[in-house]
Amino acid sequence: MLTVFQPQDYRFPETVSELLEILSQQGEHARVIAGGTTIHELAYRKGMGDVRTLLDITRLPLGRITPTDTGLRVGATVTFTDLASYIAATHPRQLAVITDAIAGIRPMQIRNVGTVGGSICSSLPFFDLPAALVALDATVTTTRLDGDSRTLPIETFFWDFFLPDLRFGELFTEVEFALPPAGSGGAFQKFESNSVDWALVSIGVQVRCREDHFTEVRIALGGGIGRKIARASTVERALVGKPVTTEVIQDAVRGVVDDVRAFSDFRGSAEFRNHLLKVYITRCLVQAARRAR
Ligand SMILES: Cc1cc2nc3c(=O)[nH]c(=O)nc-3n(C[C@H](O)[C@H](O)[C@H](O)COP(=O)(O)OP(=O)(O)OC[C@H]3O[C@@H](n4cnc5c(N)ncnc54)[C@H](O)[C@@H]3O)c2cc1C
Predict the structure, then answer these.
(1) Is the predicted pLDDT of residue 256 greater than 80, yes or no?
(2) 20, 82, 237, 281: which one has the fewest Cβ atoms less than 10 Å from its Cβ?
(3) Which residues on neighbouring strands pair with residue 67, listed in sequence order?
């Protein structure tokens, strides 16, 4: 018999404090829900544990995009569609790594209801936006009932599948990143074996170039290559200071095998994944460097 997950209670807390109060009282029996697209999958796969109460945060004031002195602050419940529209209207060139990533999120219904916070707090390397945000060196902020809030690099926020660095009773509130300076460019690309499966590799790249040389490079590796998003640090180091040429990029990208240990499964062999990594990092670097001009 098919048993469907049925929460005993579905609430719309009116304030963040009310939400945090319930979270700290109910612990593992309560779960935040935003767009509900990961929750839906978890429920279907019997992954909701002993959750009895769902706390819908979409009516809380967490859906704003705020310009800061250096960049943007994006609230937890901002949807993919709203973020992409905002960037398209304000910083399309500077933040292309984000709009590339969102454009690849399918179907459109997921872009319309899926939220930035849900994408990050799912802590799955297969999701697209987090890799773009790691490339941008974003920070995330959480809050809890005693008023304590933490701000940490997004790169350190992912511990394992479905295991973000969220402590007991904590709520993720926003992600923030600086606008890349002049001479910067970004790109995101992914490879899926079919249109309904998770990405085998997904790459977010952000570079800065001066006089046709790389001066800053950040490469985030997501998809099915590990349990969390990794950095291609060996490739990054090999590129800084070097001229922007396809030969230099291809040579540096070979070092990615020192950054991640690709594995084999029914979706593809480790060898195939390593090949994809090299191809897609190269493509992203070429595109990002072109955009940096
Ligand atoms: C059919 C389908 C196709 C998809 N395709 C893609 C794709 O192409 N690319 C891609 O990247 N993703 C894809 N996804 C995944 C989708 O992007 C994520 O499911 C979505 O980003 C999650 O956001 P949400 O608001 O729906 O999260 P929810 O399901 O509401 O929440 C996800 C998790 O985060 C927690 N959470 C949410 N917000 C907070 C918060 N503020 N503080 C603390 N915890 C929080 C929830 O408790 C839950 O554990 C797809 C999903 C489906 C179902």
Answers:
(1) yes
(2) 237
(3) 72
pTM of the model: 0.97
Q: Which two tokens mark 235?
A: 């490739």
Phi/psi at 94 (nearest 5 deg)? -70, -30
Task: List the residue whose alpha carbon is closest to atom 23 of ligand 1.
Answer: 118
Q: Which atom of ligand 1 is nearest to the CA of 166?
A: 43
Pocket of ligand 1 (CB under 6 A): 31-41, 57, 76, 105-106, 110, 114-115, 117-119, 121-122, 127-129, 166, 171-172
**Backbone φ and ψ of 282, nearest 5°:** -60, -50
Q: Record the tokens describing residue 29, joined without a space.
A: 């029996």
- How many whole angstroms from 186 Cα to the centroid of ligand 1? 24
Residue pLDDT, tens place only, 56-113: 999 999 999 999 999 999 999 999 999 999 999 999 999 999 999 999 999 999 999 9
Nearest CA, atom 21, ligand 1: 119
Take residue 30 and report the two structure tokens written for it: 């309560």
Of the residues 108, 121, 201, which should be mutated to test ligand 1's pocket, given the most ligand atoms within 8 Å of the CB?
A: 121
Confirm or reject CATH 2.60.40.10 for domain 68-178, answering yes or no. Answer: no
Counting Cβ atoms within 10 Å, is residue 251 exposed (0-12), middle (13-18) or buried (19+)? Answer: middle
What is the band of 2 on the pLDDT scale with cuts at 50, 70, 90? low
d(CA 177, CA 94): 12
Query: Which of 119, 126, 128, 197 most suits a substitution to test ligand 1, by most atoms within 8 Å of the C-beta?
Result: 119
CATH of 185-291, one of 1.10.10.10, 3.30.470.10, 3.90.460.10, 3.30.390.50: 3.30.390.50
The protein residue with its alpha carbon nearest to ligand 1, atom 7, reads: 105
DSSP secondary structure code for residue 60 in this structure: S
> What dihedral angle (degrees, nearest 10) is formed by the CA atoms of 205, 278, 274, 256?
-70
Q: Going by CA atoms, what residue is nearest to atom 41 of ligand 1?
A: 172
